[in-house]
Every structure is written in C-alpha cells, then in structure tokens.
Backbone:
C-alpha cells in the first residue's frame, strides 16, 4: 500500500517530520519530484538534520530510500548529503536511484544564477539550484537521463546539441563564458562510478514491492500552492507538487496511492515571492517568525527569513482538495501558544465579493483577507499525547479549522520531534 506525504500550502509545513515519523512503518520511502532546492528539517535520536535530496526515511535501518524518476538529481549534492549524515553516525542508508531520473548539470545552476541576475528586482526568488533550467531542458528533450550517462556516444552527441542551444543564450543574452561539449561529457563521466552501485529500474522494483504487500511512502516537496498548474503561477516551482504526480514521479499505478496525508501548518509561512493573502508584517510577523518552526522560520536551504501570515483556510481548503487528502496532519500548533487571540483567514474579498474558493493568480492579486478571531490557549502544549488533554481553546481552534477546510485532521503535531504527535 502506498501513502503520500504532501504539503497543503507553500511548503515548509513539516513534511520531513511527518515522513520521518511515518517511515517507522514503511519499507520504502521515495522522493518523486523537485530537487535540492528545498529542505526538510528532521529532529530525531541522531540530532537535527536538513535534508534536501535524500528521502526522510534515511534514518531507519529497515527502509530503502529511493530517488524517483521525477526528481532533479544533483549528484554532488546527493553524495555530500549522504556524507553529512554518515559523518554524524547515521548508518549508511540503502539508496536506489531511478535509471530514468535526470541529472542537474553545473550549467543548470549557472543559468539559474544568470537569469536571476538578468531579472534583478523582478526575479522569481529562485534558490539558484538549477531547478527551472533543469526541468525546462527535460521537457525540451535535452536533459541527461541517468541511464544515458554510461554511453559515451549518447552523451557526446547530446552535449553538442546542448552547447549549440545554450551558447547562443550565453553569448547574446547573458554575456557569459560559453560551454564546451567536452566539459559536459567529462562532468557526466565523473558521475558514472558514483551512481553505478545505486542505479535501479525503480518502477519494476516498486511493482514487485507492491505485489509483496510492502509499505511505500511517497515524500513530496513544497506544497499545492507551488504546483506549476494548480499553484500561484508563475511564482511556483517547476515540477508538480501534487500527490497525483507521485504515480508518475515514482512510476507506480495511480490507484496504488490509497492514503494522502496532507501536511498543513497551523499558521502560514512562505519563502520567495508570490501572492500571500493572509501575510502579516512588522513586529507581529517578527514574533511569529522568531517563535515559529523549530528555532525560527528561516529557509532550510537558503536561510532566508520566511514570510509569515495567519492560517489561510481558503488556500488550505484548496490545498487539501487538490492533493486528494484522506488525512490532514496539522503541524506546529505548539508555536501559537503565546497568542491572546488568533486570527484565521476564512474567506477572500475580491472586488467586494466574498468567496471561500481559491482563485487564479490574477484574481488572487486583488484578494483581501476576511478574518475571524479565535481565543488563544496561552500555554505550552508540547508533551501532550492525548487529544482530550489539549486546552479547550486549542481543540476549538483545531475543530474550527477542520470545519473550514473540510478534511479530517487525524494527526496534530505539537513539537518538532518524532514523538511529538497526537493521533485523533
Ligand atoms: P518541510 O519542507 O515540509 O519538511 O518543512 P521544513 O522542515 O522546512 O519546516 C518545518 C520546520 O518546523 C522544521 O524546522 C521542523 O523541525 C519544524 N517542525 C515540524 N513540526 C513541528 C511542530 O509540530 N512544532 C514545531 N515547533 N516545529 C515543528
């Protein structure tokens, strides 16, 4: 059976923690989209880790960690990350890399930087990890699939094609040094030995695992609102962040995904530019940012301060619906314990019309938040294990939000650790 762990919002909902926790019962954990551009923070018995490429199941001996075909595979970053965890006494994880995954090239990272420079103030807030150039090339059919790098003729021929296209842009648009086909070939040849032990026909492997009744977890990166189709285009990422894409990015039948655990944060945060209706500013935002997450709301990959806001029920209802949610994991609730009152954005006012349906970006730009304010619970809820033991106002907050979003909150996370969870 397959469970997906995905985000309802802008990312950073705590998917890493929930995946690490659910991985206890999983045989296989797979990353199915995205690359090293976002991070998952995990706190467990080995310490605190920021993972960017590895699935969040790597901390258990019994799980196999898979890099699916949908991932943007940055080989040096993958190996640096493996080293960073084994250096801290985590046993070497069992890793498989899809033979259909494609490789992030050093020039993808350069193009990302050049484009951000060119756009200057109008940039998309890219993390400059090469993700957008990588996926553009994948769909332009000039990407390098892992399976191809073992064949000199294939990579030489494609390297010529890549240079012919890229060098026009490098010369005339960016005014930067040109690429040489032999450097591209050398880069790819350098990855052969590194990757060879891990390369796997992942869809066959997973098909067999499913026949054997194995438990499989799909781990999503970012959240619904960063999906290229259903998110706040163009301020989105370059691969689908939806559970449905798990079937494609891992190579499993869509009907195999029986559970979709959508991770939804008790307040809002976002990194990078883009529409954010319930955003707050000034001291109010600074305080939430300072207290947020586990040691403040700063990007796991970039260290950038996250933008903060109150819970957005319109965006989250939509975020859960587009994921095909069966269970909501409601996270970082403990952070809100300092507030006397907690505003919740329950609707948008767009040109005088009030709606609870999340609109396209053009309409979203005009949306003003409609708030309802709930009383706070004014205490620390960390350590509580039973739903009934939560303060009444805290339960009221959860139940209010559950009603607004229309999907069952079955897990409540009240701390960053593996065991900080209340099942309902
Ligand atoms: P992801 O990308 O969705 O995995 O999220 P991140 O790891 O970027 O951000 C979540 C942050 O919140 C991390 O620092 C986690 O350690 C932390 N975190 C996760 N769940 C909780 C929780 O319930 N309470 C608190 N206080 N922190 C949490």
Residues:
């Amino acid at each position: 059976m397959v469970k997906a762990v995905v985000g309802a919002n802008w990312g950073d909902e705590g998917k890493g923690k929930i995946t690490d926790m659910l991985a206890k019962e999983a045989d296989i954990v797979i990353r199915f989209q995205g690359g090293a551009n976002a991070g998952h923070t995990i706190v467990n018995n080995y310490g605190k880790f920021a993972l960017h490429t590895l699935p969040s199941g790597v901390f258990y001996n019994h799980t196999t960690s898979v890099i699916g075909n949908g991932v943007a595979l940055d080989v040096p970053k993958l190996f640096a990350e493996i080293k960073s965890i084994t250096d801290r006494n985590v046993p070497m994880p069992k890793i498989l890399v899809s033979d259909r995954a494609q490789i992030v090239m050093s020039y993808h990272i350069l193009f990302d930087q050049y484009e951000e420079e060119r756009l200057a103030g109008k940039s998309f807030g890219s993390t400059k990890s090469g993700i957008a150039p990588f996926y553009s090339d994948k769909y332009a059919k000039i990407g390098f699939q892992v399976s191809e790098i073992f064949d000199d003729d294939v990579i030489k021929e494609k390297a010529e094609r890549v240079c012919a296209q890229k060098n026009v842009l490098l010369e005339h648009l960016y005014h930067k040094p040109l690429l040489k086909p032999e450097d591209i070939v050398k880069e790819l040849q350098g990855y052969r030995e590194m990757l060879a032990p891990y390369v796997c026909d992942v869809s066959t492997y997973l098909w067999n695992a499913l026949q054997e009744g194995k438990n499989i977890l799909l781990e999503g990166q970012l959240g619904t609102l960063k999906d290229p189709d259903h998110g706040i285009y163009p301020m989105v990422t370059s691969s689908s962040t939806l559970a449905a894409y798990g079937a494609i990015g891992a190579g499993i039948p869509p009907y195999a995904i029986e559970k979709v655990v959508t991770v939804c944060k008790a307040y809002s945060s976002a990194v990078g530019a883009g529409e954010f209706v319930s955003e707050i500013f000034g001291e109010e935002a600074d305080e939430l940012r300072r207290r947020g997450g586990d040691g403040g709301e700063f990007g796991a990959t970039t260290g950038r301060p996250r933008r903060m806001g109150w819970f957005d029920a319109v965006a989250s209802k939509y975020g859960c619906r587009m994921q095909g949610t069966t269970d909501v994991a409601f996270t970082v609730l403990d952070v809100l314990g300092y507030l006397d009152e907690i505003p919740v954005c329950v609707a948008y006012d767009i040109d005088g019309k009030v709606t609870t349906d999340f609109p396209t970006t053009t309409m979203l730009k005009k949306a003003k938040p409609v708030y309802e304010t709930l009383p706070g619970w004014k205490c620390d809820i960390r350590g509580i294990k039973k739903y009934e033991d939560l303060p009444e106002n805290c339960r009221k907050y959860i139940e209010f939000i559950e009603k607004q979003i229309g999907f069952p909150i079955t897990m409540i996370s009240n701390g960053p650790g593996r065991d900080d969870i209340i099942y309902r």
About this structure: Residues 141 and 331 are 39 Å apart (CA to CA). Residues 102-197 form a domain with the Adenylosuccinate Synthetase, subunit A; domain 2 fold (CATH 1.10.300.10).
